[in-house]
Design brief:
- The chain is mainly alpha-helical.
- The chain has one domain (3-72): ACP-like (Non-ribosomal Peptide Synthetase Peptidyl Carrier Protein, Chain A).
- 54% of the residues lie in helices and 0% in strands.
- It is built from 4 helices and no strands.
- The radius of gyration is 11 Å and the shape is globular.
């Protein structure tokens, strides 16, 4: 998954304009990225990548930059 695809997914799940999504954007920095939408984002990421994201990893994936790194890495299917 490319960085631009990650940013588009983040924008879609959070309901914000894609131009407002940067690598530096992180959980809690916008009212739209609350705990419920963080879970929704992780579920969308799981679906898109075909992997399972554990609770500890969900906590680590709290920024667009971290999500981009995760999404760009090779994964084995869940």
């Amino acid at each position: 998954m490319s960085p631009s695809e990650v940013r588009a997914l983040v924008a879609e799940v959070l309901g914000i304009d894609p131009t407002e999504v940067s690598d530096a954007l992180a959980f809690g920095e916008r009212p739209e990225w609350d705990s419920l939408n963080h879970v929704n984002l992780m579920l969308a990421l799981e679906e898109r990548l075909g992997v399972e994201i554990g609770a500890e990893q969900m906590v680590e994936l709290a920024s667009v930059s971290a999500i981009e790194q995760f999404a760009g890495a090779p994964h084995t299917e869940a």
